[in-house]
Amino acid sequence: MISVHNEPQPTDLGDVRVANRAVVLRHVRVHAPCSRADIAARTGLNKATVSSLVSELIERRLVRETGLTENRIGRPATMLVLDGEPYAAVGMEIRADELVVVAVDLAGNRLLTWRRAFTPTDSPTDTVRVLATLARRAVARIVEQDRTVLGLTVGVPGLVDTTGAVPLATSLGWRDVALAAELRAALGDPEPGYPVSVDNEANLAALAEYRHGRHAGTPDLVHLTGGTGVGAGVISAGRLLRGGRGLAGEIGHLPLDPGGPVCACGRAGCVEAFVGLPAVARRLLPDTAEEGPVTDYLPELDRIQALARQGDPRVRAGLTEVGRRLGHAVSLVVNLVDPEVVLVGGHFAALSTWLLPPARQELAARAIAPDAGGLRLDASVLGATATALGGATAALAAIESGRLPAR
Ligand SMILES: [Zn+2]
């Protein structure tokens, strides 16, 4: 699993150096271009420590001097930026209808984005094989560019425990799949040579939001995934909220109304049964019968958008009702974890023009804090590759937490 969000507190001098290295890297990432003196002044680290850490980071090509200087009284200061070009990380997502691969360098620049149609079979082993082939191809592309792969993280639409196993992923038809272990075995001879992790799709989308989204850097942030399933990734005080076994965030199955429609999980009135994409399509377009992965509903989503734009009264009224249910669901999270920002993805983002105004009203009515505590409820702009981007971001986490890459 990802270690950065649970890194141990520093206990000896080596740990202190790791922690200080993380502070310097974070400062350069956020404030670049900046000088050694800026870093010392803004972080409280002494100049000798900063100088020694920066030399080491330059030597390992994590930071570089720009050649630019800042003119100030006294000596001009050499400006620093993140380098990280020799390093890359890969994120993947298994969806019920496609596989997504994203690779980024340490500075967050996208190196590749691939999407490949995919149909889950009865055998998770087949899926692991396809996933491994795709991962190997991405890694080969990165290695050709003279970069070192720091890690691979795969997002799954289901429960993922702390060992990277998947106890349940309904949309894939999976139960008790030891995905991380199987993927490592499929990639390695005997080891892949880089860490392989598995995480829940909504957690990774939240990480992508935290790093690359429109409210990047907000330490208390929630990303709600929209699609066939509905899930939440919760970042609290800058860390993913995972729960004891890694299973936190299953907002899709919070009950909104016990008299509501039956959910895919077998219970009645879950959030997903009201606002999941199949429920929205069925409600707004009564001729929709099919149940399937998100791509099966893309024509319906297009039709809903077209009818809403034309002002179709039935579709507009339906969207208002779905928006209210969405706002109700968001209010449950807001009352529980008090985020500053909630971002909605998938079909919620695609329909945000019509869903968010009633959702914000419902949220304001149901949140205990006046005006929902100033919470911002917005549409994500990261699109369909958010989870894979979050996976790549997660794989960079060890470096960002101050560990040096293996030589
Ligand atoms: Zn349910």
UniProtKB/TrEMBL annotation:
Database matches in Gene3D superfamilies: 3.30.420.40, Winged helix-like DNA-binding domain superfamily/Winged helix DNA-binding domain
HTH marR-type domain boundaries: 23-65
Pfam families: MarR_2, ROK
Positions of transmembrane segments: none
Gene Ontology molecular function terms on file: DNA-binding transcription factor activity
Family per similarity comment: Belongs to the ROK (NagC/XylR) family.
Protein name stated in the entry: ROK family transcriptional regulator
Organism: Micromonospora rosaria
